[in-house]
Amino acid sequence: MKYQAPKGVKEYLPPASAQFERVRDALLAPARLANYQLMELAIFEETEVFTRGVGESTDVVSKEMYTFTDRADRSLTLRPEGTAGVMRAVIESGMDRGQLPVKVFYNGPFFRAERPQAGRYRQFYQVGIEAIGSDNPLVDVEVISIATEGFANLGLRGFKLVVNSLGDFKSRNAYRLELSKFLSTLDLDEATRERARINPLRILDDKRPEMISALAKAPNVLDSLNPQSREDFSKVQQGLDALGIAYEIDPRLVRGLDYYTKTTFEFIHPQLGAQSGIGGGGRYDGLMESLGGQPLSGIGFGIGIDRVMLACQAEGIDISEEIPLACFIIPLAREWEFEAFRIGAELRSAGLRIDFAFGDRSLKGAMKAADKSGATFAFVLGERESQSGTVELKELGTGQVQSVRLADLATLLGNAVKRSKGN
RNA sequence: GUGGGCGUAGCUCAGCUGGUAGAGCAUCCGGUUGUGGUCCGGAAUGUCGCGGGUUCGAGCCCCGUCGCUCACCCCA
Description:
- By secondary structure, the protein is an alpha+beta fold.
- It has two domains: 242 residues, Bira Bifunctional Protein, Domain 2 (BirA Bifunctional Protein, domain 2), CATH 3.30.930; 96 residues, 3-Layer(aba) Sandwich (Rossmann fold).
- The protein is built from 15 helices and 16 strands.
- α1 runs antiparallel to α5, α1 crosses α11 and α5 packs parallel to α9.
- The chain binds one RNA strand through α3, β6, β10, β11 and α11.
């Protein structure tokens, strides 16, 4: 084996690719129903979009970006996350000067140069949505509910939703100061002290047991929320309650991107191993402005398709394809191939999924192929059928055969597909 | 970047204390006339990840290297 996909690149081949599509579409459907619209975006950006957007101090920017120089010596970067690119496109197209809020969704591959492990890849896939230009906490609720709807579409149950509020800019900065003071009383190792200096909030995320106990007495963000932030967070909670969405409040939930303010949230699936976050997001107040746009607030989420697929697997959810192959057509010999193909094309344009026995194989081999294809029906096309305009249609599940006129084939197959869907 | 586990047929793996490689599944063909699934018979496939060392002899031991995988950090 000479060539292989680059390290950590996750690819989906049949039959898993059909599951990938289903998961992606199930996650996207609620966004469409909530009137979010598709953005098909650049997969690489000027590096500065991310350094300014995501923040220099984050791990994502400081050590995980795929950055390269093009022939004109421009520094470009494969997108490591979705929000910054959305903001750039919104500003570039002037959407931030039009009707607000701007509600958009996206999906596709993202890239981070990390060491791969279970559920973490260098090329991975996300769906995401952003609602830009409204401070209303109900928008936060809408965004979160779209995510939970997506999971519900798949029948996922084993995840939990964790929410927190970091407070608005003022509130967050005040807390940051307070937290720094507290952290300076702790005896921290070199790396942690450096992180604390760059962004003290991120220390709260530390999962090491000794750190968790050291942080037991750390000041709580929620206690330092100013009145406005407090009220907004309370509305978010009321909205979630009204929709019957279960959640936990975790004042330690900070998330690794610098732009978050106010609401942050994360979906955790405990059966997943070390990388248990299947999705997450939050509100960002200063992001648009720092990329040169209007001073608008926004909120959004990113959901990892790869991890949602793992979660479905862990819960034993069947995400296999449900549209069956209606019929497998077997030309008896080369001379019948064109006619078989013509019939197949007609059936396909009637909306039926049709496949053929290609290649010169024995009839037995062709029947075997029909069987393995999972088709509901199969028939042979040869001299007799061509003459009579009638085929012996075989139902592969039962072995039953019936004579069907070619003219009636489309209707009959169509009805059979409908019936099997109804079951 | 750091640490653990693993690299044998397309896939999943077996190979006892070192004696020149096997199973199941998958693939293909056949079991007489134009109909699959079960069953039976047959065929094909490996520089045992790569390089070096020890040995009369290495898939098995040693060293290096590459790859995969899991975990730390962090995130989807």
